[in-house]
Amino acid sequence: MDKQRQKSMQESVKAIFKKAEDREKAGGDQFVAGWQAVLELMLLVMEKHLLENPGQLLPMQISKDDEWEFYLDVMEKIDLPPDTGAVLVTPGAFKEMSLFETMEFEDSKLARWNRNAYSIILSNLSDRTLILQASLPGIEFAGIDIFKDGKHLADYMYNTVEECLEELSEVIWLFFKPKGEWSKDQIIQYTENWHGKTVYGVEGPDVKYHTDFSYLHHPELIDMTPLDAVFKLVQATVPKEIDSLEKAIEITNEINQEMDSGDPIITEEGILADDRAHCQALLDRISVEIDMKLDMLSYLKDEKVFDRNIKYPNYRQIFDKTAKRIYEAITGRDCPEPVKVIWSRPG
Q1: Which of 7, 22, 122, 173 has the most CB atoms within 10 Å of its CB?
Q2: Which of 297, 313, 122 is CA-nearest to residue 203?
C-alpha cells in the first residue's frame, strides 16, 4: 500500500471511531455503535475493490473449495441494486482478522471468527449511515441486521442459512433500492452485473434479478432497440469471460485442434504483428462465442424477441461491429483489415 493510500486509510479509521464515539455520547448503545463501526471498517478494507466493482458481491479471501462453492451459491441468490457495495466475509477471512484482537470475546468458541460462519456486509457506496449485515449463521440462528446511524434499526431471524439467503434480496431491496427513477447508468450497471455472473458459471433460471430494471428486457429504458440492447450486453460480457489475450489464444487453439478445423496455431506474436491468418482465427472464435451467448440469452425469461436472421443487413452490421469491438477489447489493438467476421452459422 502506498503512503498516500495508507494515510487516507488511517484518517478514515479515525473518522469511523470518532463517529462511533459521537453516536454513543448522543445516547446510542455502546455495543451497537461499536459494532456498526466494525462493519464500516470491514467495508473500508474492501473500499477500493467495491468502488471499482459497484453493485457486485466481492469475497474477502477465499481459502478453500467449500468457501468458493458458498460464494457461487450466494451469488446465485443475491440480487444487488446499483450503487451498493457488498462483501462476503468467509470463515478464513474472519480467522485472520486482527480487527478483533482487543475484543473481550475474541477467544470465545461462539465468535464467528472461531466458527465456520460467513457474513455479508452491505451498504451504499457513497454513504455508510445504513449498513446491512447477514450472519450465516449467527450465534443461534441465521439472520439479517440493519444498522442506521449507530442504532439497530431492524432484524430478521431464520431457522437456517438457506432460509436467510432466500429472503436476503427482498430485504436488501426494501432498504437499498434507489429512490425515484433510475438513471441510464444505473440501468446499465444493474443489467451487466446480474448477467455478468455468467463469467463465474452462475447462470440459469435460479439467478435472481428484476426484469423491470434490465435493459435486456426493457431496451427502451436506455433508448435502444432489442437488437442493439442484446448486442450491447454481449459486448460487455464476452471480454470478461475471455479476460486476457493469453486466455483467448489458449481457448482458440484448444478448440481448433479438437475440431481439426485446419486453422493455424495462433500465437501472441502473430496477433501483435497483425498476422492475417492468426487474427482471422481469433476473430472466428469470437464470432462463435457471440453466437453461443446469443443462444443462451434467447432462453431468458421475458426477454424481448429480436431477429437473428443474418439476411437482414442490420443484424450482419451489428454482429460484425460487436465481434471487432470484442477483438479490440481482448487484444488491446485495432482489428486489422482485411480480416472479416465469418458467420459461424446461418440465421
Answers
A1: 122
A2: 297
SS (H, E, C) 218-262: CHHHHCCCHHHHHHHHHHHHHHHHCCCHHHHHHHHHHHHHHHCCC
Which pairing describes strands 118-124 and 142-148: parallel, antiparallel, or unpaired? Answer: unpaired
One-letter amino acid for residue 55 of the chain: G
Domain boundaries, the chain: 3-180, 211-331
Burial class of residue 230 (count of CB atoms within 10 Å of its CB; 0-12, 13-18, 19+): buried
Please spell the DSSP secondary structure of 39-75, one letter per residue.
HHHHHHHTHHHHHHSTT-EEEE---SHHHHHHHHHHH
Between 10 and 285, the more confident residue is 285
Count the Cβ atoms, other than its own, within 10 Å of residue 20: 22
Cα–Cα distances in angstroms (integers) from residue 240 to residues 145, 199, 271, 326, in the given order: 34, 7, 19, 10
| Residues β-bridged to residue 86 | 57, 122
Under a CB-based contact definition with an 8 Å cutoff, are residues 289 and 325 in contact? no
Q: What does the alpha-carbon distance between residue 135 and residue 171 come to, in Å, rounded to a whole number? A: 14
Cell of 115: 466458527
d(CA 320, CA 99): 52
At residue 8, does pLDDT exceed 60? yes
For residue 211, the one-letter residue type is T
Residue with cell 429480436: 306
CA–CA separation, 125 and 122 (whole Å): 9
- On the CB side of 147, CA atoms within 13 Å amount to 26
Which tens digits make up the pLDDT trace of 189-233? 999 999 999 988 888 888 999 999 999 999 999 999 988 999 999
Q: Cell numbers 484518517 correspond to what residue?
A: 11
Q: What is the pLDDT of residues 246-261, one digit of tens each?
A: 999 999 999 888 887 7
Burial class (CB in 10 A: 0-12, 13-18, 19+), 169: middle
Cβ-in-10-Å burial (0-12, 13-18, 19+) of 200 comes to: middle
Gap between the Cα atoms of 327 and 282, Å rounded: 8
